[in-house]
Design brief:
single chain; about 450 residues; 5-stranded mixed β-sheet; about 20% helix; globular; 7-stranded antiparallel β-sheet; alpha+beta
Length: about 450
């Protein structure tokens, strides 16, 4: 991620000596790296605590932990204190060792201060061959970043010069070691899941730096792993050629359901109470595919399931969610998580948290933050739920909606004030509308077998 980021930033300068690069598991925009869809990414806290702060204290002769190993041992003991501290900008423990953290917080995602790290819109400056690589269970910026950067490079070259641009998306979590593994979380993805990362990179460089005739000579530019089927597929484009967007609607016909037909009834809605002081918490301590079925028991979570599928269904690309919502508050976060529900009841996530979340006040990122009018209905769109998965006959697809999924991102106080500068929170009622005039839905990128 960090080495990938600095490769992109160097490539933006168009150095003539740079011929090929492999930016793995990294970002497409600082607005989706330090923030995601308007929300600050709290995973920077453990990264700074364990990787940066100890060395900074050692070099600056500051008091506190100076060993990375000791910091990693201590982090679980202090994690809740760090992640729950409000306001974010008044966190007392990193100010000397990591002043840059507080500089980040001073700049919301719409600030042009972040332009120094912006890749999107600057692909024409990049002349090197690029291998974009990430995994479905990588940090959220990784899978989105790989796909976005691949398409950005492709569009910028558009046949005017050799594309020299590849995309590899596996079932992996974050890090090079993960690419050489087959088991993550609760699932074993089989022998095909693991790759020889070093061989992959060397083949890429051999072809583009030395002209070696190998798999990069004629192989389609996109390779992606389909979870559930546990096999690789190739395509000339991303999303894969022939993808058909299939719409499924949220409905409440006696019970909450996910159905293929648009609702015909009049006003229909589902409500839940969201309390920032008692957020929905990720019950698993690590990224990867896990069973989240227990979350359906929470009163502040809405769950919409399909009927058991009549046949196999494979998706590959970005799931899109369009949700009509209102709230008796000035702001809230919308989480739309998609699960693969097995016949035994396990509900397995298809991606890591992040791309499936949107802060309502950032519903239009081009205009910056716009607070809500209480009880007004807004159309909220999430269009980067990137994944590939095969649902087998008898499985179900679940869409689950909440206003939080701690501790991955900073909490929405729901008052309209920012958690960067305020600690005052408010419980609120959030209403999801799913009638014919306001059809909340998800669109699945279905591909043929």
């Amino acid at each position: 991620s960090y080495p990938g980021a600095v490769q992109w930033l160097a490539a933006l300068e168009s150095p003539p000596s740079l011929k090929a690069m492999v930016p793995a598991m990294t970002f497409s925009s600082p607005r989706r790296f330090f923030y995601t869809n308007g929300v600050f990414d709290l995973s920077w806290l453990p990264w700074i605590y364990t990787n940066v702060a100890p060395d900074a204290r050692s070099r600056k002769n500051l008091p506190g932990i100076t060993s990375g190993a000791e910091a990693r041992r201590r982090w679980p003991e202090v994690a809740d204190d760090y992640r729950n501290f409000l306001p974010l900008a008044e966190l007392p423990w990193l100010r000397d060792a990591a002043p840059f953290y507080f500089e980040w917080l001073r700049h919301p995602p719409e600030s042009d201060w972040w332009d120094w790290a912006e890749i999107q819109g600057n692909y024409a400056n990049i002349n090197a061959a690029v291998l974009n690589l990430s995994g479905w269970h990588d940090e959220s910026y990784g899978s989105e970043g790989a796909a976005t950067n691949f398409n950005g490079i492709r569009a910028s070259r558009d046949g005017r010069r050799p594309a020299a641009n590849h995309l590899v998306l596996g079932p992996w979590t974050h890090g090079v070691d993960a690419t050489m593994s087959r088991r993550f979380g609760d699932l074993d993805f089989g022998d095909e899941a693991a790759i020889d990362y070093n061989a992959e990179v060397l083949d890429f460089f051999d072809h583009y730096l030395r002209g070696v005739d190998n798999r990069y000579s004629g192989m389609p530019p996109v390779r992606y792993f389909v979870m559930g089927a546990n096999r690789w597929r190739t395509s000339s484009a991303w999303p894969p050629v022939g993808t058909d967007m299939r719409t499924m609607y949220l409905a409440a016909n006696g019970s909450q359901q996910l159905v293929p037909e648009m609702p015909v009834n009049g006003a229909s809605e589902s409500r839940f109470e969201a309390d920032p002081a008692d957020p929905v918490v990720d019950p698993h301590g690590t990224f990867g595919p896990h069973d989240f079925s227990a979350l359906a028991l929470r009163e502040d979570v809405l769950t919409f399931d399909t009927d058991p599928l009549a046949g196999d269904l494979t998706i590959a690309g970005a799931i899109e969610a369009r949700i009509y919502a209102s709230c008796n508050c000035r702001d809230f976060d919308l989480w739309v998580r998609v699960y693969h529900v097995h016949p035994d009841g396990r509900a397995i996530n298809l991606m890591s948290p992040g791309n499936d979340m949107l802060r309502a006040s950032y519903r239009d990122s081009s205009t910056g933050r716009q607070l809500l009018e209480p009880e007004r209905v807004y159309e909220l769109t999430l269009d980067q739920l990137v994944t590939a998965n095969r649902f087998a006959r008898g499985d179900r697809i679940r869409v689950q909606i909440s206003a939080s999924f701690a501790p991955h991102f900073s909490r929405n106080l729901q008052t309209g004030e920012s958690e960067v500068t305020s600690d005052r929170a408010k419980a609120a009622t959030i209403t999801i509308h799913h009638d014919r005039s306001r059809p909340s839905l998800v669109r699945l990128p279905v591909i043929g077998e």
